[in-house]
Specification:
The structure is a homohexamer. The first copy, chain A, is α/β, with parallel strands linked by helices and about 290 residues long. Helices cover about 35% and strands about 20% of the residues of chain A. The first copy, chain A, is globular. The interface between A and E is medium-sized, with 24 and 22 residues.
């Protein structure tokens, strides 16, 4: 008898009950201000992950030795942002209930809000580490509050001051930078400097990590809706997420804003895959199904 | 003194007060179920219209002889569908108040609803001619009522039965075809046959014409979000819109669903431009600024 | 508990035991003489099938009413043509053993040979209907016998004379056309004329149908490795496969030679999807899982 | 000893002294009003001709049986239109002196003027058959007389009235159509109708044939700088050039306006190749090197 | 009453009379030796500037606080290089007469000559700072003197020795490097080193700054006609232009050689936009309309 | 009399008998595991080399001063890997027999095996320097031994231990890294560090240099089948190949794995061209035809 066509991110084929981490995709891009298309990211990432190896020479670890379950993409009611966020929130809650780490693949950055809403219910004192080119701190964008340009502001409404650590930021409204400076968030402009100190400070705290891939320089990562030159290198980002995921208590995370159509070389998708691979390897503390 | 950089659709440079027709763009694509990107259509159409001639050998008329004003694109609150539609509705109302014909360039097909809402206020017994590959008659799409897959159903809620004439339809849910057959709309499958009879029947009535360019076969028009092979030819569509616009009392119209990124040859944009040129030439009954 | 990420062709989600037809992909393109890339066709077809409707207004049937199982793609040892063909042959045999219809999605056209090898074991008097732009009748191509340019010649070695019916052929070596004319195959140049007669003649006989999508004109189907202008229209092909599949005893079939990278509009993939949908609907004689 | 890397159009590898036809490319596109890029056409055509067969089932002839020499591309002083045209003219003259048929591959349509200047010196009563979407009859374009929009007007200055036969024309300034109607050229709008009569009339006369490939409908041929929907089909054009080349006394010809970058599927280049193959096969009256 | 469709570079919407800087585009690319297409740069830059923010965190300044007027693109007689240059020269003169800074957006690099001709009339002792990958110092290119490969040589004919400072140069004919070394220009190979000294030296002098964007490494800026790997980074170039524009007396400037079609990710256009934004912010010494 | 259309890599137009180096292309990509298309690299490299200058400011040398012969592309029996390798081996042997340096342009990396087989016959104690992102040390790939993923393992079977020096490696199976560490090859992960020492050690020894261009970071070189972020910069690679080629006794070399279709900007091809130019200039010890 032939088996069904299961399509996972490379090497993420644990049984759900054994999994330490659960992947899920949110193919949503309806609030973006410039160029849409991130909805196709989760699919592209799964498909092109087969161009990767399961083994990382950076961490000397292998995806085949860890326990990850890929639960596929959410079916989202495009056009109804409130319900989209609720659908994301529900899936995240289920994963939390089963004591696993939710790993969300966007979609645009607004999807983070769904996950963070679920996280904050479980972890009242949640901190957020935010790697991005953009501040995402607007009160609203042309009157719209649920916009990818406002997502961190919405998260701040849940966490309160001094809970959000932003790195790599190089674009935003003047007022957003000023608002951050008033003490609402820690905002490091242009680069990832100071991340070590932040990691030191947050040890043991529950952390949600949100990676907007446009934190990368456009030379590395052209495949995104709102390209911002002047960002960090692939190795800087890779080392940063390895540090964060291996040293801190990450209770949930996401990777967002890959827009595959704007990079037909597939390089941006390959980078997304590799960042996800390294995050998974750094997050997993236990050995895989196959090893015992 | 140097002048400002005014960018119009080719030859549409009348003064507003003289204009018989007013162009406006709705760069919106947030409810589409498959591939977004139609938001860039109005801009692409204006830019590439300069590859056209103002003269049509088909109608032996010239854009430089008619009065059209191009009012540019609306600024739309992406992510908030209700307000997007209100913004479109308001612009349409202004144009109606000034006794001009509103000519909307989408964007996805849902933008039609904004225009039709304005039209129905002025013309209680409005009829709609709808050229499309898709039925667009769903009650909702994954629970979302304001979706491009439901736009004609939403229009029907305004017009009632026997007011909507659909041509070229070749894709939809089974229940949509059946709902149409129950007498709610006139639905001609696959082609434009029977249009003559419809034109005969509707003479003198107030008509809104909505053209979803995916009514064209995909060989002619690959640049669209939801490609449906099996459609009509460019010449069939061009002749149809010339007939409709010259013989009927068109009180408003739109052209939607060009998605430029999916046709990097520019052919789909060129076709959109030519369809718009022929519609403008067929709609205008008076002579232009330059001629008197 | 969350479920696994099963990715099927649209609506093909029967249980294996109930299925009348079984889909399987052969992501192989190593013998092509010009431009490779068909290996990505099965994946692209599954992904983009979600831009389709399950309902066909052409046949008034719905994929949700029939029983099809999608068994995913074969894992093929690229670079070792003999073993690639054996892998295809084995999967086909399993499907035959379970009394289901194998429906293979290529890949390049050589994959057909794997299926036909399995078919001829079960059906000694097998006939083949072959829709293609190319003769595919070479004895060898630069000395290589297992080449996509030779696949029908290899099939003929299995079936013998008067068993292969070729339509739409418009490209080949002079000697190939002459070889066919010697009575080895029935070869209809340029178009599908005479298909009716062939269908009449073959009623009740076991038939394998192989569709090389480049039989379509390049205006409809640019996404292929060896584009040949001068082919048939989408509607001609669609009607032909509906006729063949509904009127004849098709014991196996395939659809090959979509090369997605050469059509970034996605139109060629959409056409492949629709041809497959119509073939599935025409092939299925029984009602689906859901119905009873 | 290894041989040099000679790159010819498929099968055009006669020795110069034996050749009946001589190919040469003019990689020039500096005067185009909209989108440049035709300079890469001759190279693309040679490269992709290897996706073709040498045999034509339409004419039952084979390139390997005729005598054609490919003399490669001219080195053109881009930016100096006068000298570009002189360079083309000189190469054409050499070919005429050696009593061979010059077959020019553009580049933009202005290159025709170089060839026609040479032709008119040898054939005082030259006639021109012109297949195109555009009139190309402007006196000047923004003051520029040597523009691709004026090329046929410049040719008319050499031939005088009643010598130019235009087919397929569907775009131009109103005044151009009127100027033609005054009796300067024969201009058939939209299609190739009436070509039979023209062929009948011109039998035995010296004819220069100039094919602007944008005479094709954009569904067949998207790869061109100024796309004009509403044109002729591939088979109509192919049959027309076979008729013209086999029945008339063609003393020189060209194929222009392929712009490869605007059709990344390669279909437009494939069409250019096939049109050229059919023209070569129809032009050659003698047998090839290989046959004697 | 509806307003006209004015399309400016982001935030450059001052009234002409108030403007300190005037933008103008020169959509010209007819003399390029390799790949044309820069004519579409000014349009692409205006359109995609809306993906930017008006605020620069690098300079802590905002486009909404300065006075820039965008006068749109010149209408250029493509194919007649002399007149193209005259048209550019005239527009530049008007801007000089009104005591504003001309900011030209190319097009190919030859457009600089039009501007420099106007500048040298007003500023006899003009110096030029030239950032580029290419020497642009040829006496002629295939006999053509008005070529993008000769533009700096042509400028030198106007300024004389010791007036031109070239940085980032990594490609050219051997003789060009030698000619520079003879003391005609200051030429810094490969990088921007020594720019500080140049700035120090030129303080207070009238300077024309010409930026050929291919000075950037191809990893940052693939969208150009003649890609030259081995260049400077985005941040190096951005910092350089900020230094030059804020510390020196720039009397005119340009940004050239973006070729949008060769970078369909839009990243190259985004970089052009950001470089222009930073130059505008560094150039403006007075406060904007809105602030007083 | 007109001359034939010879297409060489820029400036490589020596007579064969005078040539020190012989170029040849192997358009083969049938064993690649992920994305094929490298077969078009040799053609793309020749065509786009005309965007380069013959002069290198890095080495102050000029291609017009050295003796290189371009023998074009091999005609390879696609689909029959054994014969493909034999064809490559034979051409390499001819070049060795004539005491010239073979310079192979791939195609996929497996083509190296053909060249190395020829080299090892002549140079028993051959050493290989291998620049790559991938280990290429698998015993087999899905049972296939002649795969691009196994090419260096196959070479090792010919050279034995301690003869292969790998640099830049950042991807592979865990077991491949371990196998290398057992002393079979010298393997430097991630970068080119240690190359100086290797050069010092190998002085005077016969060396084959194989460059898989994916050793470059994907920001520089997106045009490859299996993109691996995290690689070396263009300048690092260029300096490395100049060092290796000028200081060591290179008896043969190759450059592989450019896949032009995945970088439509042409930047990857431009980089391949420049790396080849610098290698040629560094390899040549004698003066060219033109100089004596």
């Amino acid at each position: 008898m032939l088996s069904k066509n299961i399509v996972n991110f490379l090497g993420c084929d644990s049984e759900y009950k054994n999994a330490e981490i659960v992947l899920y995709g949110a193919p949503f891009d309806s609030t973006v201000s410039f160029r849409p298309g991130t909805r196709f990211a989760p699919q592209a990432i799964r498909n092109d992950s087969y161009g990767l190896e399961t083994y990382s020479p950076y961490q000397d670890k292998d995806l085949s030795d860890i326990n990850v379950f890929d639960s596929g993409d959410l079916e989202l009611p495009t056009g109804d942002t409130q319900n989209v966020l609720k659908t994301i929130e529900k899936r995240t809650e289920i994963i939390f209930e089963d004591n696993k780490i939710p790993f969300l693949i966007g979609g645009e950055h607004l999807v983070t809000l769904g996950s963070v809403r679920a996280a904050i219910k479980k972890y009242k004192s949640l901190n957020i580490i935010h790697l991005d080119a953009h501040t995402d701190l607007r009160e609203d964008y042309l009157g719209v509050k649920l916009s990818h340009a406002c997502v961190i502001r919405r998260c701040w409404e849940l966490t309160g001051d001094n809970r959000i650590y932003q790195f790599g930021i190089r674009s935003g409204d003047k007022s957003e930078f000023e608002w951050a400076k008033q003490g609402h968030t820690y905002l490091k402009r242009f680069c990832l400097e100071g991340l070590d100190t932040t990691i030191e400070k947050l040890k043991g705290e529950p952390i949600y990590l949100t990676v907007d891939l446009d934190v990368l320089d456009t030379s590395y990562f052209p495949g995104t809706g709102t390209p911002e030159p002047g960002g960090v290198s692939f190795l800087e980002l890779m080392n940063a997420v390895i540090e964060i995921c291996s040293k801190l208590r990450i209770i949930g995370c996401d990777v967002t804003e890959l827009c595959p159509i704007y990079d037909q070389s597939g390089v941006s998708t390959a980078i997304a895959c590799k960042i996800i691979r390294e995050m998974l390897l750094a997050l997993c503390k236990t050995e895989g199904d196959n090893n015992g």
